[in-house]
Design brief:
The chain has an 8-stranded mixed sheet with strand order 6-9-10-22-21-20-17-11, with helices on both faces. It has a 5-stranded mixed barrel with strand order 1-2-3-5-4. It starts with 20 loop residues before the first strand and ends in an 8-residue tail after the last helix. The radius of gyration is 30 Å and the shape is globular. By secondary structure, it is an alpha+beta fold. It is built from 17 helices and 22 strands. β2 and β3 form a beta hairpin. The protein binds one RNA strand through β1, β2, β3, α2 and α10.
RNA sequence: GGGGGCGUGGUGGAGCUGGUUACCACGCCGGCCUGUCAAGCCGGAGGUCGCGGGUUCGAGCCCCGUCGCUCCCGCCA
């Protein structure tokens, strides 16, 4: 290899290199054989260079060029020269020049490809995953993986400059009761005992605060044994951050400045800070989601006042049951077919809505008139209805009457479906917002008890502390999410550092002290030794890069992702192991079917 | 756990109301070609239509089951 080592890359040469003798290394990207003269494009990470083998090239070079096939790995030695004036390619970075080959060295052959690299039609994901190394050769993947690197580099740069220390925490820990199912690792030396993979470095970063590292971060792998989605893998990467002696404002400022730094350097995009803030209630009421897509202007409105006075029993009953009636105006929706409305109703139903009431707003002699659907129940109050929801003639009003949560989320889903179908979502923009004031507890109907809505170490807001036990459902926590373009990008909280308060929270969620000490006594014990007030946050790196790359699946920004079944198609994991390995661990596979 | 979509030569797609030899593009193989750059032209190979049943004179198409991928609900603090 020594004598064929590259002296330049395929993307860097230009007119100023005219006459320069260079060696290039790369892959045969495309070939164009004209019988006499022969062209091929050589590709590496940095670009594409046209190689030309002239008809009068010496010693079998033409034959050699003709034998090159796609994705052969080669070294080419030759002289850079200007292309004839009319033959320059303006679309191409290196389109003014070409390399006149003098020697071609075959470094490695390639089998016929299972799919074309850089084809107009993409191969199916399944195939791309199986041959990930080929998929990764595409400029599109190279760009995204490079963007991911740039992002984590700028994060490290920013946090380091601001006094944060990157500290690693173990990836084999004890199983602790967090939200998700743990991945377990059997211990050979301690048969019958297990390590767990961390769902996040949560407990360790809090202990680092007790350890006096007041500004910590880590780009950490997290593992959760739950069903995957496009924006969710069983294994993902978090930008884990924790700080001592701070309020949530300090966390917000840090993350805003960090993201502004990242976007500026990685994308050349200026982010407007501070980010917008929404309470959880506002987000749900207005957008029907706790991770609102703010690039869409449509807003949900409250229809309770009108529903209560109407003659429509379905609405009156929902209100009487303590539920809600919400409405969404779809501009121009009066033209929707019944089929389309049924589709929207199906969307609402997936979120538990029993139906989707609708009526059209049509132009009338004296202002708007209501038409179709449930309009007959509201025809006396047309003006009030139209004013309440802000509709104009040509619009469609859709409504859901149900529990507050279902009414909001069902219409939130309809809102997104309409926005996507009508192409109302602007590309290339990033709408960030903090969602704050989440409830600390959530009623678990199955078990008839209170659960921690976020996690059990999150601080209740001070004004609720006094009445924590008497009305848990009303307690708001010092919890916050960062959302962007409809994705939850980060989640965090100010933590409880007062053992007494922690005991009260445990008791509300029915976690007795003995159990608490058994599961994570080490944290509670640490809190006996002067724990600093602290809080933090954990942006998801995969989702961040996905949003930056304008992708909709994090698989696109992970070099070696798993599919929705948690299978890595390239190395075919998970896989069976040797009986000997099982025996050493004292494990036996039983028939569980 | 539940629901929707998809599965057709190596790849991406088409295939009408069930009808005779399953179509197109790219790739692959052979030939021609001295300026292309998604090169072009001529020729060729390549398919148990995911799998298993069923309905039918006849199934890529309809029905049932099953497997895989994917999107969504649940789940994921």
């Amino acid at each position: 290899m020594e004598q064929y080592k590259r002296s330049a890359t395929c993307g860097e040469l230009g007119a100023h290199d005219d006459g320069r003798k260079v060696t290039l290394n790369g892959w045969v990207h495309r070939t164009r054989d004209h019988g006499g003269v022969h062209f091929f494009d050589l590709r590496d990470r940095y670009g594409i260079m046209q190689i030309v083998v002239d008809a009068d090239a010496p010693g079998g070079l033409a034959d050699q060029a003709a034998s090159l096939k796609l994705e052969y790995c080669v070294a080419v030695i030759g002289t850079v020269r200007m292309r004839p004036e009319a033959m320059r390619n303006r679309e191409m970075q290196t389109g003014e020049i070409e390399l006149a080959a003098e020697q071609i060295v075959l470094l490695a052959k390639s089998d016929t490809l299972p799919f074309m690299i850089e084809d107009r039609s993409d191969a199916k994901d399944e195939l791309r995953m199986k041959y990930r190394y080929l998929d990764l050769r595409s400029f599109s993947m190279q760009r995204k993986i490079a963007l991911r690197h740039e992002t984590s580099f700028r994060i490290r740069e920013f946090l380091t400059r601001h006094g944060f220390l990157e500290i690693e925490t173990p990836t084999m820990i004890r199983s602790t009761p967090e939200g998700a199912r743990d991945f377990l690792i059997p211990s050979r030396l301690h048969r019958g005992k297990f390590y767990a993979m961390p769902q996040s470095p949560q407990l360790f970063k809090q202990i680092l605060m007790v350890g006096g590292f007041d500004k910590y971060f880590q780009i950490a792998h997290c593992f959760r044994d739950e069903d995957a989605r496009g924006d969710r893998q069983i294994e993902h990467t978090q930008i884990d951050i924790e700080m001592s002696f701070v309020s949530k404002e300090d966390v917000f400022e840090t993350v805003e400045a960090m993201l502004a730094h990242v976007f500026s350097h990685a994308l050349g995009v200026h982010l407007q800070t501070p980010f917008k803030r929404l309470t959880y209630e506002e987000a749900m009421n207005t957008y029907g989601s706790d991770k609102p897509e703010l690039r869409v202007g449509l807003e949900i409105t409250d229809f309770a006042a009108i529903a209560r006075e109407s003659s429509f029993q379905v609405f009156r009953a929902a209100i009487a049951d303590g539920g809600a009636v919400k409405a969404l105006v779809i501009p121009g929706g009066a033209e929707y077919s019944r089929k389309r409305i049924t589709e929207l109703e199906d969307v609402a139903k997936t979120y538990g809505a029993k139906g989707l009431a609708w009526m059209r707003v049509a132009p009338g002699e004296s202002g708007a008139v209501l038409d179709g659907g449930v309009s007959k129940f509201f025809s006396d109050d047309t003006a009030a209805v139209v004013r309440a929801v802000g509709a104009t003639p040509g619009d469609l009003i859709v409504m859901v009457a149900d529990s507050w949560r279902i009414a909001c989320t069902a219409l939130g889903a309809v809102r997104l479906d309409v926005a996507r179908r009508e192409a109302m979502i602007a590309r290339g923009t990033f709408e960030f917002a903090w969602v704050i004031d989440f409830p600390l507890f959530e009623w678990n109907d199955d078990e008839q008890k209170w659960d921690a809505a976020h996690h059990m170490f999150s601080m209740p807001q001070e004004r609720f502390v006094e009445n924590l036990e008497s009305d848990p459902g009303a307690v708001k926590g010092d919890l916050y999410d960062l959302v962007c373009n409809g994705f939850e990008l980060a989640s965090g909280s100010i933590r409880i550092h007062d053992p007494e308060l922690q005991r009260r929270v445990f008791s509300i969620i029915g976690f007795d002290e003995q159990e608490a000490h058994r599961r994570f006594g080490f944290l509670l014990e640490a809190f006996q030794y002067g724990p600093p007030p602290h809080g933090g946050i954990a942006p998801g790196l995969d989702r961040l890069v996905m949003i930056m790359a304008e992708e909709t699946s994090i698989r696109e920004v992970i070099a070696f992702p798993k599919n929705t079944q948690g299978v890595s198609l390239m190395d075919d994991s998970p896989a069976e192991v040797d009986p000997g390995q099982l025996a050493e661990l004292g494990l036996k596979i039983i028939d569980w079917t």
